[in-house]
Amino acid sequence: MFEAIITLCLSLSDGPCRDHLLPGYEAQTQAACQVALSDNPPDLRVFTGLQAQGIATCQPMGETLSMTEVAPGVFVHVGRIEEPNASNRGDVSNMGFIIGETSVAVIDAGSARWIGEALWRAIRTRTDKPVSHAIVTHMHPDHALGVALFSEAGAAVVGHTGLPRALADRQANYLESLTSLIGAEALLGTRAPEVDIAVTDQLQIDLGARPLTMQAWPVAHTGNDLTVWDTETGTFFAGDLIFDRHLPALDGRLTGWRAVLRALQGLDIERVVPGHGAAALDWPLGSEPMARYLSVLEKDTRAAVEAGTRLGTAVEEIAQSERSLWQLFDAYNPRNATVAFTELEWE
């Protein structure tokens, strides 16, 4: 298969540069791809600030994400359990897509445009049905920043009603941080998506005999968590409301997250796709490690608050019994303890 590519640079004089996928021009032959480009030239205005090195050309299909089919028509890419760095180029979270009879829905698309491009290719190797919806489970860059490519391809971007403001407030900081972590070249072309459909409670969409139910949750992992339930297979995309092996990261309210987790545990679902870790978890068994950690985090934090322990000391003590049970513990537990302490101190 051939696809349309254009090389874009931050500066034509000294780069960095990266080949960018132009979605929607895929064809079985290079000639057919070139005809599509000629008939419908791409709108490059979405790449504000980048300079084109030459014109769009058709090339063999590039890098494609690995996918696991966790249920019929439900595919998941498993990101690395690592902090973003130059080696992993930001591929550190789970994402996926669901194929219906008439269209496809994407759920999250990683932290950079190149990941969204590789996810697009993974879809195109399995179906030529249009991607009608791109669903963002929450504001964090490792889930949200690769989604804009699907908007360019005509998908409606769906998110929690609180997502647009959260992304607007944080996009600049996210992009600055990721540039230092994964490098400017890997991040070229990346921008926050614009939300077309904001979910305040529940929303159902149909991919063609494939209904998906989206649920907006109260403040938990973040203030804009959204889940996706494929009732056809009982598969539930939880975003970062559920972590596996990767220590949970608290950026909302601890008590709210525990309440939401209890609600999730009561749902009649077959499997959950966590935001990090395994491609899918049996349910509710897969929730037990996280429920235990959040319980310990709350118990230890309350004990520190009641004992009058100073925050700096408490952060070094809270939830230390969980250290050996999670990856990235030292990167996230101090942050979790700080957020939890601040919340419970003022209850």
Write a structural description.
- There is one protein chain.
- By secondary structure, the protein is an alpha+beta fold.
- The protein folds into three domains: 2-60, no CATH class; 68-284, Ribonuclease Z/Hydroxyacylglutathione hydrolase-like (Metallo-beta-lactamase, Chain A, 4-Layer Sandwich), CATH 3.60.15.10; 294-345, no CATH class.
- It contains ten helices and 17 strands.
- A seven-stranded mixed sheet has the order 5-6-7-8-9-10-11. Strands 12-13-14-15-16-17 form a six-stranded mixed sheet, covered by helices on one side. Strands 1, 2, 3 and 4 form a four-stranded antiparallel sheet that branches.
- The longest helix has 20 residues, at 163-182.
- The radius of gyration is 21 Å and the shape is globular.
- The protein starts with a strand and ends with a helix.
- The mean pLDDT is 97.
- This is Metallo-beta-lactamase domain-containing protein.
- One of its GO terms (biological process) is antibiotic catabolic process.
- Belongs to the metallo-beta-lactamase superfamily. Class-B beta-lactamase family.
- Residues 92-276 form the Metallo-beta-lactamase domain.
